[in-house]
Amino acid sequence: MSILTWTDALALQQPQIDQTHQEFVVLLNELALALQTEDSALPVYQRLLAHTEQHFAMEEGFMAATGFAPDNCHSKQHAMVLDVMRQVLVHTHAEHDLEPMRNLLPELVNWFPSHAEMMDAALVFHMSQVGFDPATGAFSKPAMVGAEPISSCGSGSCG
């Protein structure tokens, strides 16, 4: 059973982010399958949470390197998602209850495509505008990196 399929529509043409996003989609689908049998749901969820923490840390590293303020809206959204995911894990351990995990899964499935399309696409666009190579950390257009930190998501349509 696939609850979210990776398609070209989700691709942002940035290899590191696209690979991480593909892995995220795979883990969401693994969790959906695990929740059907319940016996392996917790370890799959823990892998999803660890992956999501690394995924967001990678993107936030790109944001920091390219001039985003630490409290930008993209990072705030990451923090909110991680907070909910961590609360679900605490609840699951304390109550031995998978229901919050079942409730969170469709929310993540609905959230992710729009987050990628808006926030992550804006980050990728900004990275290209300043010539940032995430593989090396080098800038091909260092003069494009502004002195004023970006507090939005990196797009003029987000404030």
Automatic annotation (TrEMBL):
Does the keyword field hold Transmembrane? no
UniProt-listed Pfam families: Hemerythrin
- Annotated Hemerythrin-like domain ranges read 16-122
Does the keyword field hold Nucleotide-binding? Answer: no
- Alphabetized UniProt keyword annotations: Iron, Metal-binding, Oxygen transport, Transport
**Record family assignment:** Belongs to the hemerythrin family.
The protein's name in its UniProt record: Hemerythrin
- Source organism of this protein record: Roseateles oligotrophus
